[in-house]
Amino acid sequence: MNSDNVLNILWRGVKSKPRKSLPDKTTQVTQGDEVFKVKKEESTSDESDVEEVTHLQSVKVKAEANPEHIVGLRKKNNITVKGKNLPPPLESFDELASVYGVDENIVNNLKSAGYDGPTPIQMQAIPALLKGRQVLACAPTGSGKTVAFLAPVLASLGKPSRKGFRALILSPTRELAKQIFRECTLLSAGTGLKANYITKSKDRAKQLFDELIYDGINVDVIHSDRTQHQRDNVVRAFREGKIWVLICTDIMGRGVDFVGIKLVVNYDFPNSAISYIHRIGRTGRAGMAGRAVTYFTDEDKPALRTIARVMKDSGCPVPEYMLSLKKTSKRDRLKMENTVPDREDISTGAPKLKRFKTNQKLKKNSVQ
Ligand SMILES: Nc1ncnc2c1ncn2[C@@H]1O[C@H](COP(=O)(O)OP(=O)(O)OP(=O)(O)O)[C@@H](O)[C@H]1O
Q: Which reaction does it catalyse (predicted)?
């Protein structure tokens, strides 16, 4: 079933007023690499759908919110906001219940997931969403954006109901959808993971897998040619530490949360700064340390300057020559983002091992 079909089914029977354009009265807050846009509250009829969702609107707003304290709080947590009458940042998950009337169960679940307090994106996005505001938010990878939207969604759903679809979360891959579902049912952290190799295409992922498995490395791969069942098994084995090295493509890796990844290897050079940020964001999650290694060839030079700039801005030492490389035109950049460079196959000429033989070999290795 394609996405149009899914959306048609989900929208069946749903009345919606057409918007003439996307929210035009957004306010924007930027801080470092964070952007936070919140739609201004309006009383136009277009906003009636927003009002329906906000059964929490009547709850008391955080008492005596001292403006200086709020400004200081945002500054300390690197939160930048734009918009009028924004609720103050959440200082603890307890405030969800005491200030916003959120079900205590949700608060307890957050705590039992090991979350001591809200991350900066959660501090500001959660109260804004609970107040029924439309939010466009941006925060670094691994900073807890999933909880930032899930907690308000769960809170606004209140009690279970058989009234069909009441919330819709779109995700680019099944892996990410499952992860969001897992977080929905309170996820537990993964352990003992080593490395995440990212390639540009599934063919390259398969080739790299064939090479690494030949070296007896405890490795597996996810790409779109594998069945969903196989992909699920690989992800689970990686989370459980049974697989130490995971190979995936850009799209398969995006958004996937493996807490313990210490190293990301960009085996193929990312073709945009966004891709680079998403890839390296698989490590160093939830405040942990992580390293990323990026390989490049002469063919990657047009994109090198952009990535080097991102690295420099985030405080990494970068050789000067990379920053002074010729700037690529927007047209060429877009072209690069949409093409896979023709590279030599990844091969040392090793004979290909069949998967079942490989597994036997690994079993044997682990017994010894
Ligand atoms: N308040 C919190 N305290 C501690 N850990 C948290 C908190 N909220 C979320 N986490 C953990 O942080 C990790 C990253 O969260 P999440 O996957 O939501 O990040 P993200 O911002 O969506 O990342 P990406 O942009 O890469 O998809 C997860 O392991 C999650 O369980």
A: ATP + H2O = ADP + phosphate + H(+)
